[in-house]
Amino acid sequence: MQLRRYSIKFQRINHIFISHLHGDHFFGLSGLLSSMHLLGRTQPIHLYGGDGLKRIIDTTHAESHTVLQYPLLFHPLDFTQSKVIYEDEDMKVATLIMRHSVPCCGFLFEEKPSPRKLIKEKLVEYDIPIEMLEGIKHGNNFTTSGGKVIPNGELTIPPLPLRRYAYFSDTLYNETIIPSISDVNLLYHEATFTSDMQERARQTMHSTAQQAASIAKLANVGKLVIGHFSARYKDLNPLLEEARAVFQNTQLAVEGDVIPIE
Ligand SMILES: [Zn+2]
Ligand SMILES: [Zn+2]
Predict the structure, then answer these.
(1) pLDDT tens-digit profile of 183-239?
(2) Domain ranges within the chain, ordered by starting residue
(3) Cα separation values, 152 from 10, 55, 114, 176, Å
(4) pTM for the complete prediction?
(5) How far is the CA of 244 from the centre of ligand 2 (A)?
(6) Closest listed ligand to the CA of 171
(7) Which fold has domain 79-114+160-262?
């Protein structure tokens, strides 16, 4: 419903990552899979989650006599150690192990190094043969027929800096994970409570806004987005203020907001 409300073309979604099997993190999944089916999807969906998720989906479909028109490809997650679970030529996705009351992981989305970008005018100017372009993209110099060496820096520009986004699902405060997310451009971290509820956060294996901000600060991230707020907070400003006192570049995860990774 929310994807529709914000006009997000969900037929473009090909991979779905489910962090853990508390209802607030997956109860909407069956409806989404069903809507994709009803709208005529034929492209596969890759679903990443704990083993239990496959049993839930299989049972739901069996008991409701649902036969999806598209392949649903299930990828079981290992909640004991961080692993790369998806990779293509542009990016990769790895799990981050959370400390929660049930097996739970977050996800780290990283761009992969891309080759240098060719400067078109220079290729024309030096009449560079097509078969040499791949090498030049990877740093080769070019030698003209007259024997003059044109340095790579004159023919190409460096690629854009690689972007990284870390998604922290439900978790206790956990400093051991900091090295794996240091310097990410954007960190989403749960902040279920304010600090006065720190004991409650510990018992339920959640974090406070201050703890989320501490992780952001220690990991030297570019920006922090906090979310997963307890329903007790009608006004979210105390959560935001508490986080900003520790890490200034923080914003609330508000439904419908678009947050660039930069
Ligand atoms: Zn949970
Ligand atoms: Zn939750």
Answers:
(1) 999 999 999 999 999 999 999 999 999 999 999 999 999 999 999 999 999 999 999
(2) 1-77, 79-114+160-262, 117-157
(3) 42, 54, 16, 41
(4) 0.88
(5) 22
(6) 1
(7) Metallo-beta-lactamase; Chain A (3.60.15)
